[in-house]
């Protein structure tokens, strides 16, 4: 076991780093980076700049979710007597960044785990979008292949929540177009370079935004927020009759009326009477 040298209790410290402006690092996060026995980082070149800003000279070790299992196990073993700070390249570790396997294994080993909240690009983009924030779903990066991307969007198309995606500049226009095709042409926002000098949020429909970036892929870190689906118009008499006829081919009058009432949000008694007419 390694010898403990810092003033921190042994265990894992999840440190949220800036997503742009280095000044967004919290004082508590900076203190842990100065005191930890070692800092596990996604990329030593990226994290070295933040550690200098925090006044930290602590040693770094590379860690990401594709690290060999024995690398992760060594870190978990060291947590028995040392403080390990976990830092991703930007924002909060584990949010589309490395870390969940390390947390899982540390918890299984009974190690002390502390999180130091701070910046997250997904949350920051929600605050900039002007879209509903009472319910949202973070989707990370969409699959790159067309079918897999479409299947993923179809899974969440009916969800009454704002959707949040990470995306890269070269893929942005194509992804926005796919979202419009599978989700409907909803209101959306594209936020990039959040908290940096050239921060920008563009709002519009998915089709408008896709056209905007078709010939000018943006640079920097990008977050796409997509509003929830609009209210569906009330089902017409024709819609109800069509649904009842289909249901009556396999169900009794009572069960057909119940199924269609639930599906279309209509009165079950009225549908029962109409199903009786159609059956007769």
From TrEMBL:
Subcellular location: Cytoplasm
GO cellular component terms attached to this protein's record: cytoplasm
A single MF term (Gene Ontology): rRNA (cytosine-2'-O-)-methyltransferase activity
Keyword Transferase: yes
Keywords annotated in UniProt: Cytoplasm, Methyltransferase, rRNA processing, S-adenosyl-L-methionine, Transferase
Top-level division of the source organism's lineage: Bacteria
Catalytic reactions on record: cytidine(1402) in 16S rRNA + S-adenosyl-L-methionine = 2'-O-methylcytidine(1402) in 16S rRNA + S-adenosyl-L-homocysteine + H(+)
Pfam families on file: RsmI_C, TP_methylase
EC number annotated for this UniProt entry: 2.1.1.198
Segments forming domain RsmI HTH: 235-279
Keyword Iron-sulfur tagged: no
Domain Tetrapyrrole methylase: 12-209
Protein family membership: Belongs to the methyltransferase superfamily. RsmI family.
HAMAP family: 16SrRNA_methyltr_I
NCBIfam families listed in its UniProt record: 16S rRNA (cytidine(1402)-2'-O)-methyltransferase
Function: Catalyzes the 2'-O-methylation of the ribose of cytidine 1402 (C1402) in 16S rRNA.
Name of the protein: Ribosomal RNA small subunit methyltransferase I
Source species: Sphingobium cupriresistens
Lineage, broadest ranks: Bacteria, Pseudomonadati, Pseudomonadota, Alphaproteobacteria, Sphingomonadales
């Amino acid at each position: 076991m390694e010898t403990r040298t810092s003033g921190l209790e042994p265990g894992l410290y999840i440190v949220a780093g800036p997503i742009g402006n280095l000044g967004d690092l919290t004082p508590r996060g900076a203190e842990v980076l100065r005191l930890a026995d070692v800092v596990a980082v996604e990329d030593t070149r990226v994290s070295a700049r933040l550690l200098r800003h925090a006044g930290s000279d602590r040693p770094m070790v590379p860690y990401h979710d594709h690290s060999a299992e024995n690398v992760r196990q060594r870190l978990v073993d060291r947590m028995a007597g040392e403080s390990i700070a976990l830092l991703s390249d930007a924002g909060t570790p584990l949010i589309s960044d490395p870390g969940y396997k390390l947390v899982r294994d540390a918890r299984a080993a009974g190690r002390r785990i502390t999180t130091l909240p701070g910046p997250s690009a997904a949350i920051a983009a929600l605050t900039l979008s002007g879209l509903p924030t009472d319910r949202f779903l973070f989707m990370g990066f969409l699959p790159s292949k067309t079918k897999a991307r479409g299947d993923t969007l179809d899974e969440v198309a009916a969800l009454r929540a704002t959707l949040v995606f990470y995306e890269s500049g070269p893929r942005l226009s194509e992804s926005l177009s796919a979202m419009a095709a599978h989700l409907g042409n909803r209101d959306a926002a594209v936020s990039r370079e959040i908290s940096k000098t050239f921060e920008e949020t563009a709002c519009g429909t998915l089709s408008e935004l896709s056209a905007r970036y078709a010939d000018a892929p943006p640079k920097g870190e990008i977050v796409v927020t997509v509003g929830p689906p609009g209210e569906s118009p009330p089902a017409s008499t024709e819609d109800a009759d069509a649904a009842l006829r289909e249901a009556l081919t396999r169900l009794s009058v009572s069960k057909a009326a119940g199924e269609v009432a639930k599906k279309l949000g209509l009165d079950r008694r009225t549908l029962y009477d109409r199903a009786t007419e159609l059956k007769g």
